[in-house]
Amino acid sequence: MIFRFRMLTDENDHFVRDFEADATTTLLDLHEFIIEMLEYDQCMASFFTADDRWEKLQEYTYMDMGMGMGDAGHGAPKAMENAVLGDILTHLHDRLIYVFDPFNERAYYIELIEAKEPTKGHTYPRLQFEHSPAPDQYDPEASEQSGSIFEEMMGEYSDFDGDDSYDDEY
Fold it and tell me: What pTM did the predictor assign?
């Protein structure tokens, strides 16, 4: 089974990436794909499963945190290399949060939007659609495409603020 995902960020309303990955892909393999796709340097990242309100649930870390004692409970971080997409994402619209900058809580939001049969001749994971540059890995303020499309479109009308020469009295 092939999973199709949509990835967004709250740092740039224009940024969209759609990509596909085989259900047997590990989160570590997905992390490597995302780093390459965004042209980021290797980093200490985590995935979190998330509920329908984007609240973090289970954490999957880049390195095994060595909790020992088998599975130390539902909340204990697990290693990305041991987490397979098909095991942790079981329903359409299941969600992941990919935290690539844990010190500043910078993240991408990933939603499962389709499950389908593989297409002959394609290799996975693969980028399917992209729009707008990714936010800078190290400087959240460096994105030239940040802000919302509303602010961008309405920005040209701000010249009229306070320039009312009309007489409001009849």
Answer: 0.79
Show pLDDT as tens, one digit a residue, over the chain (170 residues). 999 999 999 999 999 999 999 999 999 999 999 999 999 999 999 999 999 999 999 999 987 666 544 444 456 999 999 999 999 999 999 999 999 999 999 999 999 999 999 999 999 999 999 999 999 999 888 765 444 544 544 455 555 455 555 555 55
Domain covering 2-142, topology: 3.10.290
Q: Domain locations in the chain?
A: 2-142
DSSP per residue, 5-74: EEEE-SSBTT-EEEEEEETT-BHHHHHHHHHHHHTPPP---EEEEE-TT--EEEEEESS-----SS---T
Encoding tokens for residue 92?
């359409």
